[in-house]
Structures are given as structure tokens and as C-alpha cells.
Amino acid sequence: MRFAALSMLRSLAVAAMLLPGVARAAEEASSGMPQLNFANPLTTSQVVWLAIIFFALYLLVSRWALPQVTEVVEGRAQSIAGDLDAARHAKAEADAASDEVNRAVHRAHAEAQAEIAGAIGRAKEASAAQAEQLNARLEGQLAEAERRIGEARQAAMGALREVATETAYAVVSRLTGRPADRPALDRAVGAVLQARRA
Predict the structure, then answer these.
(1) What proportion of the chain, given as a percentage, has pLDDT over 70?
(2) Contacts of 29 (CB under 8 A, 6+ apart)
(3) Of the candidates 86, 102, 118, which is a domain's last residue?
(4) Is residue 17 a part of any domain in this protein?
(5) Distance set, CA 167 to CA 160, 162, 174, 181 (Å)
(6) What pLDDT, on a 0 to 100 scale, did the predictor assign at position 57?
(7) Contact (CB, 8 A) for 20 and 4
(8) What is the three-class DSSP state of 194?
């Protein structure tokens, strides 16, 4: 900043030293434009005041306005940099939270699948055990029914043998007119019944 101000002062000093030469040149060319007639003291004073006002504006801008603008620009740059850092940090946290949520969802899904598979396995085991109990009970009932049927068949066969023997005795006795041989009839009826069972 100081270097710029010093160089500006040097330029103004050189311009001030050149003013008389410019004024002489203007006198020689006074037949030209009246704005460049430096023989007129009004024109010279206007040029000097222009230089003074320009220098004052330069000092005002360089010492007061530009530092404030620089300060505002630097503050905004720092604010933007802070906001960008905060945004990067928030994005990193959001990505980490999203990854954690995804891992938790996958973990919960796997646990639910395992729980479902376990429940299905337990239900199958319980169903198989219940089926085995029912089968055992049915087999017991079937065995009991078969035993009863066998007993009833034995009783029926015994009664049938007796009825068949009595009927054969009565038929043979009537047809022959003599009493039949009961043990022989009993053996013959037993042989016929035995053949029918086979």
C-alpha cells in the first residue's frame, strides 16, 4: 500500500513539474481549444485542484475503503470455508449414519430370517412328534381292533365249527338213519374250515 502511495506521489510531482512546459505549449497553441489554454489562470488552477482531489480520493480509497472491502472479502471467504468444512463434516456424519443404518437393517433382516427358519424348524419338529404320537396311538388302536377281530373270528369259527358239526351230524343221521360218528364229523368240518382259512 505504501509503495503504491509513494509511486502515486512521484507521478504527481512529475506531472506538477511538467505543467509549466504544458502551459507554454498551450500558449503556443492558443488558437486551439479554450480548455487547453494554460495561459489562463483558471485552467491551471483547475488542473492543480484536479490533481489534489485525485490524490485525496486515492488516499481515501487506499487507506479507508479498500481495507474495509478486503476485510469483508476475507471474512466472507473464512465464513464460506467454515461452511464448507461444516458441510463436509455433516456429510461424513450422514454417510456414517447411513452406513450404520444399512448395517442394522441387514443385521435385523438376517436375524429375522434366522428366527423364521428356527420357528419353521420347531414347528416341523413339533408336527413330526405329534404325527408320531398319533401314528403310535392309531397303530395301538389298530392292533387292539385286529386282536378283537381275531378273537371274534376265533369265537365265530368255534361257533361255526360247532354249528357245522351239529348240522352235519343231523344231516348224516337223517340220511343214513343211524347216528353218525361225531369225532370223524368234527375232524372233517375242521379240515374244511382250515382249507377255507388258507
Answers:
(1) 79
(2) 36
(3) 102
(4) yes
(5) 10, 8, 11, 13
(6) 94
(7) no
(8) helix
Condensed to tens digits (0 to 9), the pLDDT of residues 88-125 reads 999 999 999 999 999 999 999 999 999 999 999 999 98
What the block records as the C-alpha cell of 9 is 506521489
Query: What is the pLDDT, as a whole number, of residue 39?
Result: 76
Helix, strand or coil for residue 181? coil
Residue with cell 485525485: 54
Hey, what's the cell of 101?
Answer: 443404518
Distance from C-alpha of 138 to C-alpha of 77, rounded to nearest angstrom:
89
Residue 54 φ then ψ, to 5°: -60, -45
List of residues 6+ apart from 190 with CB closer than 8 A: 161
Could you give the residue ranges of the DSSP H alpha helices within the chain?
A: 2-28, 41-60, 66-176, 182-197
Give the torsion sign (CA, 158, 161, 163, 169): negative
Sign, CA dihedral 138-144-150-156, equals: negative
The answer as to whether 125 is a domain residue is no
